[in-house]
């Protein structure tokens, strides 16, 4: 007999009968209330476990769904998963519900929890029920931004070619998947100390700092690099000059954070923003005479389902320059943000944030933030900072603010650290979760990219409720 029951018994044994009657009248409802709380707590725990079981069942059914599949077949899959789960023994699932547009599958699952104390009030069970919904496969669109570090360390440390092979295999994983064809678009965002918008997008620029919107160096590169070999990017319009020292690409822009520091003394609302150039035009890199004009990567390839073009862009990447992680991350956002719909070549993308589309950024780097505060290369971001380290901290703040804003908008971020010298702390922090952070070496990078591709493909089926 419990301590509380013994105390109750002693009170009933009191010689004063009136006291015993009063205690009995008051104590019984109190015991029922305490007992009901215990029973409802048990019911709550059962409901939590039932929700987990229902979620697993609806995901399993959604992953096996085929067009016009009979509801009876869907119901059998759900029932088998529920019966295999010890927490949902005795649970009953209602008829599966497939939305009219065949984008979502929902189920209601009910069970009952036997009571203990509440049986004193002739309440033998507490009903519990849950609802779970999942997106159906083959319906959801996927937009992926591949942000790749092409700084000079990549080729100097023999990491560049393995990375190209890995990214190419990643694209193949989606182009060869019949279920993903027509549903997947991928952008390629090479970055080093800057990003290039390419010569097809010079109308995004503004004259600045006494220089024209489109620098003469971009339109007449032969006059600047007399001994270089002139070629064109895969877009057919962006020039590159290949000399014995470097690849001189055109079309790079100053990061907006740098421009804000120059104009206002600090990073403002644009530095970590996805505002399109229709709202705020970009400043050409040449407007900063100290930014190091040679350190410009190949142009961004906006979202496309032309995987042949993407593979050509990957195979033509070059490696040079320092590492502005913030520039790469923000540019990746540009290719995914609905604010840029109709700004890029494809008028239909990026689409709006919605459950019908999965937006993903996969960002890879082998280094640390490397803003320049030297005599020959000076980033405007470093104005008013005491040291290059302080300047890098400012750039990291911009990067993390951009990552946070993307995650708030539902963009899933995978990050990949590609060397022992990489800034693991900040790379991991940018990722959606610790499970979205990966490390790689030249011998493992292709396997890592394949793992990420598999995770993204699996995410095409996911819970919505």
From TrEMBL:
The keyword Membrane applies. It holds the Pfam family Tad. Residues 143-452 form the VWFA domain. The keyword 4Fe-4S does not apply. This is VWFA domain-containing protein. CDD domains: vWFA. It comes from the Bacteria. Keywords: Membrane, Transmembrane, Transmembrane helix. The chain crosses the membrane at residues 20-41.
């Amino acid at each position: 007999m419990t301590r509380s029951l013994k105390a109750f018994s002693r009170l009933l044994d009191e010689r004063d009968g009136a006291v015993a009657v009063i205690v009995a009248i008051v104590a019984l409802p109190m015991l029922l209330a305490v007992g009901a709380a215990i029973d409802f707590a048990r019911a709550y725990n059962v409901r939590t476990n039932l929700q987990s079981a229902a979620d697993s069942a609806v995901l399993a059914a959604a992953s096996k769904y085929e067009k016009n599949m009979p509801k009876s077949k869907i119901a059998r899959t759900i029932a088998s998963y529920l019966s295999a789960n010890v927490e949902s023994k005795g649970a009953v699932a209602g008829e599966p519900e497939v939305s009219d547009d065949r984008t979502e599958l929902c189920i209601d699952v009910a069970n009952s929890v036997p009571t203990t104390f509440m049986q004193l009030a002739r309440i033998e069970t507490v009903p519990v029920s849950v609802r779970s919904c999942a997106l159906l496969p083959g319906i959801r669109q996927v937009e992926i931004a591949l942000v790749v570090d092409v700084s000079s360390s990549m080729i100097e440390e023999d990491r560049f070619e393995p990375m190209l092979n890995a990214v190419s295999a990643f694209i193949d994983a989606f182009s060869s998947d019949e279920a993903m064809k027509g549903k997947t678009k991928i952008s390629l965002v090479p970055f080093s100390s800057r990003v290039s918008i390419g010569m097809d997008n010079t109308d995004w620029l503004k004259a600045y700092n006494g220089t024209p919107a489109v620098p003469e160096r971009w339109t007449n590169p032969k006059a600047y690099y007399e001994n270089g070999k002139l070629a064109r990017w895969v877009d057919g319009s962006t020039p590159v000059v290949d000399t014995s020292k470097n690849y001189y690409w055109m079309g790079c822009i100053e990061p907006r954070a740098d421009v804000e520091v120059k104009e206002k003394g600090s990073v403002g609302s644009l530095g970590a923003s996805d505002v399109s150039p229709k709202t705020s035009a970009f400043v050409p890199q040449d407007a900063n005479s100290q930014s190091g004009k040679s350190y410009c990567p190949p142009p961004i390839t906006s979202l496309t389902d032309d995987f042949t073009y993407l593979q050509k862009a990957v195979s033509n990447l070059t490696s040079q320059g320092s590492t502005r992680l913030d520039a790469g991350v923000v540019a990746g956002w540009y290719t995914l943000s609905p604010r840029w719909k109709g700004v890029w070549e494809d008028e239909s993308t990026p689409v709006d944030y919605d459950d019908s589309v999965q937006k993903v950024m996969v960002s890879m780097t082998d280094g640390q933030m490397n803003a320049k505060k030297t005599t020959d290369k000076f980033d405007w971001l470093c104005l008013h900072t005491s040291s290059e380290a302080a300047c890098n901290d400012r750039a990291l703040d911009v990067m993390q603010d951009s990552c946070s804003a993307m995650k708030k908008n539902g963009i899933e971020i995978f990050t990949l650290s590609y060397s022992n010298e990489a800034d693991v702390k900040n790379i991991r922090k940018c990722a959606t979760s610790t499970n979205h952070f990966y490390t790689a070496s030249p011998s493992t990078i292709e396997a890592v990219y394949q793992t990420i591709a598999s995770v993204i493909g699996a995410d095409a089926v996911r819970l919505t409720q």
